[in-house]
Amino acid sequence: MAVTASPSAAPPARVIDAPSPGPAKESLRIEGLTKIYGGTFVANDGLTLHVDPGEVYGLLGPNGAGKTTLVKQVIGLLKPTSGTIELDGHDLVANPGLARQLCSYLPQAQMPISSLRVHEAIELTGRIRGGDIPAVRRRADELIEALDLGQWRDTLGSRVSGGIRRLVGFAMVTVWPGRVVILDEPTNDVDPVRRRSLWLLIRSLADAGACVLLVTHNVLEAEKAVDRLAVIDRGHILAEGTPSSLKTDDRDELRLSVMLRPDVATPDLPGFVVRSARSGHRLTCEIAEVDAARSIAWARGLLASDVAEEYALGATTLEDVYIRLTGAAALDEPAG
Asked: In terms of domains, do 165 and 44 share one?
């Protein structure tokens, strides 16, 4: 039986310094990266971006957008059809073995740790990556404490919950991090309290000089955590910049979020709604700022007619930009 975590038991989040065995001196630079499967399917189409040392860079997009293909090329598991990937003057396409040495990667799938105790899995990974035993043990202890994993320290991986296993995987990847740290949905299944600690640790990796590439579906968390990001879909970068700069085109619009009652169909939208998307019971509408009063009156009417349970009106978010660029529904939760 899996052991589950109690969110209320976690201590306040704190920052610990990440080790810096080899911080990147230059940006991770990806130029014109293209990957074509079977001669016809274009997974990545001329992607160009860079991730600077000390930066958390978000890669945001729906399933099938080309994010995983990009990551596998960076870590040397896929050879690009064309384009370049360079770090500190090294050609990572020509030397995929070096790419795997320089990059630490947390995949979206759970780490295979069933036969290892939690502290063993973390320490073993650090030693494999070249860390000396005393330093790795100190760092492992720091991560176990920061993520509130002490009660599972000597527990086999097969006996911990998915959320705890996810945190152990993060600790394995960051106990002795590479110059580039790639994290694919790092907060999957993690409770809210430990999630805060996780974001602090991610920031500490960048502060220690790593290039951090964060792959995520969680738009709202990405807005708070990243320095810059790219929205990618169907192999193309649709937009790139800071979260604030990407919202420039939406400055004169507001977001109306309406929680509909279960099993209620989407109501007819008034003409002043610019665009909308529904995810589960939540209906998100973008409106012009001048229509704020009319939108509130409409939302109150939905409450009065028992169609909705609550509503909120506020400034547009990165999620609204994401919806506008990709045409996708809101994606607050990672896909299964």
From this structure: yes
